[in-house]
Design goal:
Largest sheet: none
Number of helices: 11
CATH superfamily: Hypothetical protein af1432
Structural class: mainly alpha
Protein name: Phosphonate degradation associated HDIG domain protein
Helix content: 55-70%
Order of helices and strands: HHHHHHHHHHH
Domain HD: 38-97
Distance between the termini: 33 Å
CATH architecture: Orthogonal Bundle
Number of domains: 1
Mean pLDDT: 89
Number of strands: 0
Organism: Ruegeria conchae
Length: 196
């Protein structure tokens, strides 16, 4: 069942996301050697360690939030249809975050399809689970889809988060918890909505 988002506002959205990490973060992530929370925290941590801007760090942290907010539930390796978690996540984020962060969520699946179409060696980086979901998500983009995707003003950031998505699948990597990133997440909300 889809959660009720009508009570969310600038003052509780970060706590809402933190609660998702706390309650659901331990769930298996697509057959990878990390949990859902570990995957997202790893991407954000790698971005922070590499001096990336806060938009990229938060984009990496939240890119898969739709696995928890979708009415269709989380991905399962036996799936034969895509669950469109990227759209479910973006639907929640777009009210509170700058478009670059929302786009990193909304288009991280498209970015995988784009990179598989434009950089043939990228496919070799994909885990078995990511190859399976690629098939469900439409496979590499067509030339027309590539051209349309390249028109996105946030293309560079979306691609950066996609690479962080692939990187955040390391067994036993030490990362800070969500609380470490929470002030940064709040800054992004305040930046989007203006100071209160």
């Amino acid at each position: 069942m889809k959660p009720d988002f009508s009570t969310l506002n600038r003052d509780n959205i970060v706590a809402f996301i933190g609660d998702i990490f706390e309650r659901r973060g331990g769930e298996e992530y697509l057959g990878e050697p990390v949990t859902m929370a570990e995957h997202m925290l790893q991407g954000a941590t790698i971005a922070e360690q590499n001096g990336q801007p806060e938009e990229i760090i938060v984009g990496a942290l939240l890119h898969d939030i739709g696995h928890f907010t979708s009415e269709f539930g989380t991905y399962h390796p036996d799936d034969t249809e895509d669950r469109h978690h990227e759209d479910a996540g973006a639907e929640v984020l777009e009210q509170f975050f700058p478009s670059v962060i929302t786009d990193c969520c909304r288009y991280h699946v498209a970015a995988k399809r784009y990179l598989c179409a434009t950089k043939p060696d990228y496919f070799n980086r994909l885990s078995a689970a990511s190859v399976h979901t690629l098939e469900l998500q439409g496979g590499p983009m067509s030339a027309a889809e590539v051209a349309e995707f390249e028109a996105n003003p946030n293309l560079k950031e979306i691609i950066q988060v996609r690479y962080l998505d692939e990187a955040g699948k390391r067994a036993n990597m030490e990362t800070p918890d969500f609380a470490h990133f929470a002030p940064m997440v709040q800054r992004m909300v305040d930046k989007h909505l203006g100071s209160s």
